[in-house]
Amino acid sequence: MTSSDVNVLLSPVSLGSVRLRNRVFVPGHTTNFGHANHPTERHAAYHGERARGGVGLIITEGIRVHPTSAGRHISLGSFDDDSIPAYAAVADAVQTHGTRLFAQLLHTGRQASGDATRTAAWSPGTTPWAAGTHVPHAMGRSDIAVVVRAFGAAARRMGQAGFDGVEIHLGHGHLLEQFLSPFTNTRTDAYGGSPDGRLRFTREVLAEVRTQAPDLPMGIRVSTDEFLPGGLTPPDMLEIVDRLRQEYPLLYVHASHAAYHGSYSLSTQMADMSFRHAHFRHHAALFKKEIPGLPVLAVCRLDSLPEAADLVAAGEADLVGLARPHIADPYLVRRAEEGHAHDVRSCLACNQGCVGRLEASLPIACVVNPEVGAEREWAELRAAGDAPARRVLVVGGGPSGMEAALSADRAGHDVVLAEAGPSLGGRISVAASVPGRERLGLMVTDLERELDASGVEVCLGERVTAAELVPGGRLDGFDDVVVATGARPSRRELPGGPPVFDVMETVAALGDVASPLRGTVLVRDDQGTWTAASLAEALAGAGAQVHMLSPTASFASKITTYSRLALTRRLGELGIRAHVMRDVETARGETVVLRDTLCGRTEELTGVTAVVDVGLPVADDAVYRELDARDDAPRVHVVGDANAPRTALEAVYEGRLAGTFLTDAVNGAELLARTPERSEPV
Question: Which of 43, 165, 211, 437 gives a 20 to 30 Å CA spacing to 662?
Fold first, then answer.
């Protein structure tokens, strides 16, 4: 599909009485920007930026209607009228740019952690959403009545705040779906026992919303398939939605999927790059086919406007929702309108800065967009920078170095980027060559495209030493040097045991059918990241018998639960064995002795033909160390893995920060401490 094909998305469309300037919307997604369960200036700036970028409709993250659903103070809620002014500020920030704003209303039910609020989670019964989580309170009739009134009151407040409509969340395993689903609702009273009984709570909520906010347009979001044995299936949801639309003036059905359950189902809700693009498009198409006349909103892994436009062109959806792509680049629609639909920062579907940080109760971020959540602060700091241009050398052409060079160029500096290798991309390009991780390569492609259009002089095959940068050296004369030389893998040899491959050697040998990596392979994982997991999956997929070893009690601990639940299913299907709380004691021949890190007891793993060592990487920071030790060196800044081995999230962020604020009369360490997020509003 060419960029011209996005025109099917760019014409105005109406949802009932709500006129939208195009068919693109930002679906609800949690940000963790809240304070005391109210939206903040961060919300206004964040959504305002995406409205400025041209999107037709924004649906807020889930607004909890009752304190038993609050969970944490950084989530959004509307429990009383004091919340109205804060929501009105968000509405004004969005509608000023011609974008419509809907409020998504929900109660999360049994997955509402009460640790912060000391409240019990509410649910139809007492079964937790996952092993090891809180036992919920089984709701009585009075509890149900309280929540029904709370939905209506929250809708009324959204109307008073100036919102254009509300979306009632009936999906994702939240409270209303918990009552709808026979998997979670085993009640025998009037709110269970039959499809009609399980539907009663939802009917009462929709009726109450119409009573308290009669003029506010109302849509619903559903999970077309719960992906749970005994759960709701597409035929079930078709029947439920058809009945509801006959009884209530529904503006649309937002066709999502999954249940918040500690199983594979949850991984589909935030489908990462292991799922194909538009993996769940058939859900929206089903509603379009079976319930004609009801507008359908499609969502999940719609990666770009040209790809998403295919659903509308095929008659499978009326609107298309792109959440993570709008986190990555808030100007998707505007670029398309200007004929540059492909000139965007692509979403990698990596789930690292968005979903991963949510899981840690942190505000969302983005690997490819370092300014997410601090749009106002970055703009203000950038506008304040008006110092003379400087000569800048960036050493290293990985993501951090590329971002630093671009940002310095945009700040008006004279920039040279020197990369020792024959191509740009660094370790991200290596990671993108591993089967299943190819989408990471989009980051390199996007940065290269931007460098081509910039004033940066790119020098490949140019290895720079510190001695060349001081007075009299070959590269004398630069005012600033940004060291972005990355990190190198570590390797722990096993004398007398099987051959040991580090990460880079393993990637290089993936296509070698004669490699010992095609036999029985032990992957030592000291990181808990995608590095070991993706290599293990690739090796097993190529026919190896793979064992994964972790010295901690957790498996793939730094991969978000949403992705890990799909990963473990795939690894299990490949026959990969996991050994947690185990480390290597010794090795001899093809036998590796494993030690239990708890009690010290040993066991043998035999027939091992190769070991992959995913140990802790080492910063490749020699240029920085040597320059930092000299008084006659140019000002030096160290970023990314050369600063400390971490992930692309931190690397790109530090590159953006260094390149943008080089005009500050500070050294690199002071500069990196001057992060815009420190001034985040509450």
Answer: 43
